[in-house]
Amino acid sequence: MAAQAAAAAQAAAAAQVAAAQAAQAEAAESWYLALLGFAEHFRTSSPPKIRLCVHCLQAVFPFKPPQRIEARTHLQLGSVLYHHTKNSEQARSHLEKAWLISQQIPQFEDVKFEAASLLSELYCQENSVDAAKPLLRKAIQISQQTPYWHCRLLFQLAQLHTLEKDLVSACDLLGVGAEYARVVGSEYTRALFLLSKGMLLLMERKLQEVHPLLTLCGQIVENWQGNPIQKESLRVFFLVLQVTHYLDAGQVKSVKPCLKQLQQCIQTISTLHDDEILPSNPADLFHWLPKEHMCVLVYLVTVMHSMQAGYLEKAQKYTDKALMQLEKLKMLDCSPILSSFQVILLEHIIMCRLVTGHKATALQEISQVCQLCQQSPRLFSNHAAQLHTLLGLYCVSVNCMDNAEAQFTTALRLTNHQELWAFIVTNLASVYIREGNRHQEVLYSLLERINPDHSFPVSSHCLRAAAFYVRGLFSFFQGRYNEAKRFLRETLKMSNAEDLNRLTACSLVLLGHIFYVLGNHRESNNMVVPAMQLASKIPDMSVQLWSSALLRDLNKACGNAMDAHEAAQMHQNFSQQLLQDHIEACSLPEHNLITWTDGPPPVQFQAQNGPNTSLASLL
């Protein structure tokens, strides 16, 4: 009986303890939910009341909550402080505590890996990459039973290596991710990993590895049956890589079927409705890009194609559409990729403006690129060489050859991109050719480094054709006309093969000039007339100016007074337009950018008293 009484007493005591714990847990849950509700209310207020949100979350800790609540609250505080304030020190402290505590709690993957992911982002923002890498590696190591987080963390570490320009390590991680996705039965995410790897291999110019990889990706994408938007987004990614590969190779004509498929694909995506049904495989919970971003990207590669092909009005049309879309997106989305898209679009349209005789507008857009780069050190680091190259092209257009040389030399110092290097050297060589005998030794050295007859440094069809043109220009200035004709005919053959209209127009007018000098007026006319027609179609103001001057002189020499007068009138009109634009550009305060060759872009510009450049080349 005593034993039974003791047992009953123990049972009663245990029941009381259990009841007390249950009441405490219920009370804890009620106060916790109340504080959490207030915090979320303040965070989502318009405008957000971040200080009050932080106070509510901090009020959780005095209650000495269970570890799960403590870890989650540290994560929430770290996330709010990281995304909504500049208090990175406190954000880091809370995220580090969330990561530390969550590792001690079983089945707490979401908090654990989100803390690791956010904390590594913060470390990178603070330039503590050496702290971010081991953190991500440990999170990857312990997340293999959680497919979504394992894939996401692999992508994140690969991106970190890419930003550090360690593309070999990034490719290795993406390869690991592709194999993991295959093992867990996610062909969709396997394709994302492989396409990302293909993108990096293209950046590294490892073309022998790219071709079989893209072939495999094409098969996976076509065979995968799943969410239509996800399938089409994979096709867009695949086609974007193919199109940019062709454009990098300067194959403007060969790319057309792929570009057409890409444009049709983005039209298909725009008609599909977002499916709210979540994939059954958690490893499939990824999107490459939002639909709206993909749309801008397709506009961008279309602009790149139009620029290379010499369809400058089409390039202008698509640039306007893309920039309008970007402005709308940037009101709601601060994603860095949108600023990258904007800078690349502006870089291409600036080149178009310089060709079409709108130097003042080009200069203002160069200034706009400077302003965008001032807001992001990483953006400036990635585009500094291109920015100085554009300034060099502008300097050539306003006949400031010393400044052009300084800008191109600065750009060469800042780039390790082979195609950009070849483009800059080609333009710098043309500057030295125009300058006469001042830089003979340097010029010969440059011409040897971009010799299109042997060991040309890049595989670009377009750049090799341009190198033949520069060789022809040099031979023309040297008075070696037969040699010049050989080089220019090679340019024509290559540019006709890939519809490189601007190079075709330039080669035709220079050949026409050579035949005119040699006294072969009929052959000169056969070159200059199609050059003029093509230049009008592009439109290329410099070639139109040059062609109209040649047509005027040709018709005079042949005694065609009316045709000579008409050509002279055209030449006068082009001269006036270019002269007016020249004066306007040189009068802008932004014209002082031509003297900037070091450090970040200058913030302010002093107004010019007036143009200080020679106008002789325009008249």
TrEMBL record:
Gene3D superfamilies xrefs: Tetratricopeptide repeat domain
Subcellular localization(s) per the UniProt record: Nucleus, Nucleoplasm
Superkingdom in the source lineage: Eukaryota
Keywords from the UniProt entry: Cell cycle, Cell division, Chromosome partition, Mitosis, Nucleus
SMART domains found in the cross-reference section: TPR (SM00028)
InterPro entries in alphabetical order: MAU2 (IPR019440), TPR-like_helical_dom_sf (IPR011990), TPR_rpt (IPR019734)
Main location: nucleus
Family affiliation: Belongs to the SCC4/mau-2 family.
Name this polypeptide is given: MAU2 chromatid cohesion factor homolog
Organism whose genome encodes this protein: Microtus ochrogaster (Prairie vole)
Gene: Mau2
